[in-house]
Amino acid sequence: MKIKILGTQSPYSTEGHNCPGYMITSGDTKIILDCGSGINSLLNFPNDLKDLNIIISHLHRDHYNDLFNLLYASFVFNKQGRLEKRINVYLPETPKLTYEDILSEKDSYAKYEVIAENKEIFINNIKITFSKNEHPVETYSIKITDGVQTIIYTSDTSYSSKDKIVQFSNKADVLISEASLLVSHGFPEICNHLTAKQAATIAKEANVKKLVLTHFWPEEELNNYYKEAKEVFDNVIVAKEKNEIEIE
Ligand SMILES: [Zn+2]
Ligand SMILES: [Zn+2]
């Protein structure tokens, strides 16, 4: 499997930095995890829309804003006869108004399916499962496995979900973890997001092979996230837009 980084920043995009998004590919299977603001600029239209699967981890703006434009593009390319199959969109069913807003988009060419804690999704040789996090809205960590390699995406989470995520991530090849905060920012240990240190602690306790940090505050130096995590966990990298991570 391969990961292409589409977006790493929150709550807004800046030049060269998009809100969260990750393209996972395995053979011909394409899965986009989250559609943050700006990620469409890194997609190859209309080819990437063909047989595309999109999973939205939670309905916070920084994770689904570009979905609307992508849906509209699917509508246009279908009208042009250049997109035959509907794109598959998997998403949580709350907050209800946001969910209904997305599904009520008429100018789109998509199918929708709800995700939940016990849900299993099979796409070709890929199995996808979910673990619910503590976060202000219904939010899931996502596990993607081809039976040999496993990728975990924490999405957004409070550290109060730590034990659950450690168990869910056990011995994964790659843990893509939010690291919105640094210890020096001075937030309480339990808040809505993780520090780089907390992300690294989860990686260490789950015994994953590689930690990929993401979901950065736009005004913060990226190297500070790296340094804080590196003190706890050795094999850590900072996600960067356009970078590709090949899993050995
Ligand atoms: Zn977020
Ligand atoms: Zn969030």
TrEMBL record:
The record's listing under InterPro entries reads: Metallo-B-lactamas, RibonucZ/Hydroxyglut_hydro
One function term, GO molecular function aspect: 3'-tRNA processing endoribonuclease activity
**Span of domain Metallo-beta-lactamase:** 30-216
Q: What is the native source organism of this protein?
A: Piromyces finnis
Q: Which domain of life is it from?
A: Eukaryota
Q: Which SUPFAM superfamilies match?
A: Metallo-hydrolase/oxidoreductase
Q: What is this protein called?
A: Beta-lactamase-like protein
